[in-house]
Description:
The protein is mostly beta strands. The protein has 6 domains: 141 residues, no CATH class; 75 residues; 69 residues, Immunoglobulin-like; 88 residues, no CATH class; 78 residues, Immunoglobulin-like; 140 residues, Sandwich (Immunoglobulin-like), CATH 2.60.40. Helix content is 14%, strand content 41%. The strands form 12 sheets. It has an 8-stranded mixed sheet with strand order 5-4-3-1-2-6-7-8. Strands 37-38-39-40-44-43 form a 6-stranded antiparallel sheet, covered by helices on one side. It has a 4-stranded antiparallel sheet with strand order 9-10-14-13, with no helix packed on it. Strand 26 and strand 27 form a beta hairpin. Helix 2 crosses helix 3. The protein is flat. This is Ig domain protein. Keywords: Signal. InterPro entries: Big_4. It comes from Clostridium carboxidivorans P7.
Amino acid sequence: MKNKILKTLSMLFMAGLISSTVNMSVSAKASAIDIVDKDGKVYEYQYQALKYSASVAALDSTSMDAKLYNDFLSRKASVKAYYDDVNKDYVSLDIITTAVLDGTIKDEGTFQKFMEDKTTRPIKLSVSKITSNNGQILIDGQITGTTPSVDMNSIKCSNPLDYMSTVVTFRLSNVSDPQDYTVTVKGKIAIYNATTGLFGVTLDGKIIVSDLASTDFVVSKISGANTTISNIKDIISTVKQGDSYTLPSTVQATMSDGSIQSVNITWNKTADTNQVGTFTFNGTVNGYSNKVTLTLVVNKTNDDIFKYTVNLDSKMNDKLQQNVSIKLADNIDSTQYDIYLQGYFEGRKLTYNKNLNTFNYVIDYGYPNDTLYTENDIRKIIRIQKKDGTIVWNPSNDTYVGIKYIHDDMQFIYTTINQEDNYTPPSPIKVTLNDDTIKDIDVIWDKIDTSKSGKYVYYGSLNGFKDYSWNKLKLVLTIEPKTNVDESKIKIQHDDVENITWYMPETYVLGNIYIYIGENSSKEIWLRQVFKYHGDDYIYIKQYVINIDGQIYKITPNTSDIKYNYYSGGLNVAVYDTNINLDLIQKIASSTKTIIRLQGDNDSKDFIISQAEKDNITNILNKYNQMLGK
């Protein structure tokens, strides 16, 4: 047994050389060891945890802390690879062994060079991660040899407010983190309370524990739970000088569970293809510690293309000279040459006729990006491949460049819509050109986003025309907040004695905080707020301390206003029902994180407001505004 431990410790020591090679700059760190079992499955153990477990096993192989090492011995048929925690890659054992020896015995620089050489290092692996928690071995977070299930002995049923429904609470067993699982009870989704470690759900009717069977509970793991980004490949793109190119907004990432996902990426600068050369961009992805490198190679365009500048008569009178003389080479066949006219509607092509020795324009859509332009000296660029000659312009109704004015006051547009509405800005629009003809011109608008309320300004460009200030369209878009009400998440109860109708969240009996609406027979409506505690422990509440994104608020209630109830099975409930503090409630609903502390004389209870509770508050507020006719 000790010989096996020494052999394993030696192997772990070799892995440690990667992170602590003598007198050299560290380029990588082996944070995990990957082995293959007799069935060919690959398992991963964290280096430090396994090293510690092996050390414990050398002294007492029956110790709880030795179980990880014992599991390693029972599974290992061979070592497959190590995980490089810096470069986020797997490095195979047969490759790394030689490099470690070269780097530590023969030549220290050899090992460092190896670790920096990305062309020879990484391999792809799909692994199952082995960890230990209080002596229990877990595979990918699940206890080995077990199935996540409901602890039937933990189930409690209560009817805290009425007998029309039952609150069922319970725990999960055989899981390391219950938040990675969803549970449905008789078809209804249970809500997990991280403070108590309990799931809870409200079922219709009066139910006792013996009414529930294990088949009433369905436990499933949330897809992608606890997955992280393992690797993102660098990118190489090649374009021609002057081409339109935009850096990608998403990239493909290899996740820790072996899946491939598309993730958002931001870049340190924008791309410019006007200069020839090789350019490097660094991208950042949330949740990924490394930078993603994009190499953009901008190649030269055809060097034989000849540019000739045609000057306009004036800035506002955008009419070309009718005849422009250019020298031609001999023996030119009839063909087409590209001509790009900046400021014109789309592009044009010139057709050369050998006998007439003229170029006549024809419409050819495809507007260039690299034609010359200055604000004070507007110029048109003709690009004719290799050849010179005489260009004769034959204007027609489609030959136009300048815009005299835009019709129907469309240059400044003011519109109000609702949040998340589908909205398309106007296009095309009517314009009058400098030759007094009227055209319908398409508008290229900025991307419209209606997901957030507020006032936003967007700009539109007339397709095919230079963006002079007098050609630019401005859209002022006011987006009203979304007031949709999800009626399925509102429970309605009627008090036949006082003739009052109550509107409350469907899951109000489980909430730590909620609001509700009252409406009497005179159609008067009002809001109330409730702080509620329910748990196994008893607490006599003196104060509520609320932390909303770091801002502290305190509420000191009259002790007689808090109602306490105690139910069979040990469930304690404390309800503080009071007039609403609308400003406070709105801040909680829109917060990133809210923590509420129930402060007693000698003890306290903290709980975090869940997103579901915030959504319930927003939904009731929307219902309240709807009832007010807002």
